[in-house]
Amino acid sequence: MKIKVLGCSGGIGGDQYTTALLVDDDILIDAGTGVNRLSMEALTRIDHVFITHSHMDHITSIPLMVDTVARMRDKPLVLHATEATLGILRGHIFNWEIWPDFSRIPTATAPYMRYETIAIGKPVQLGQRRITALPANHAVPAVGYQLDSGTASLVFTGDTTTNDPFWEIVNGIGNLRYLIIETAFSNKEREIAVLSKHLCPSMLQEELTKLKLPVEMYITHLKPGEDALIMREIDACIGNYQPHRLMNDQVFEF
Predict the structure, then answer these.
(1) In this structure, are residues 23 and 147 in contact, taking their beta carbons and an 8 Å threshold?
(2) Domain named Metallo-beta-lactamase: which ranges (predicted)?
(3) Total domain count for the chain?
(4) CA-CA distance, 18 to 6, in Å (whole number)?
(5) Domain, as residue range, for 138
């Protein structure tokens, strides 16, 4: 598997783009503003979008992407998410008021887009690639993902706060190589992190005491303007893990 980071920021502006990971050339993990960096040709090759949750910074490009490339494709774009998240998309995005219902355009039997329900712990097999939803703990129904090439795995937490069930599963992944974990707020905003169900460095430190496997770790979803401070606080409290800041255009191959 080859994963390219299109966006990994907690906001926008300048070179900041919200969450989108391109897997090979046909899968997206989330579809934030980072998707805007893809060419038209690249957009037509996207067959699957695996959605962590329904917040705008993770889904904002989906409606425009479907509308832009649907007529250039010979099969529907598949949105993979839990039933709870798909229900939010149906009710609040693809509802004819915010955006047309492309699961019924041009016809209900041959749509430009279709929904596929996923469940935590049940892998989706796409060729040799296995993508499995993992539990997340966020302000809306949410998941993370394990991406398994067969040789190694990358785990992406999605947006989450403290989450014991997640670590129980992660500690059982024998071929785990990479962990991408969010830390959205600095320690001075711990109360906001708790309220919005995100992490700050001190909370991340507490969570990592539950990790039992060696792993190469990357930090994502930092708030613009606070990003340097957050990374300094992370380095100060969990430097033994040598976490790296996730960057646009970073590539993982495994």
Answers:
(1) yes
(2) 17-198
(3) 1
(4) 8
(5) 2-253
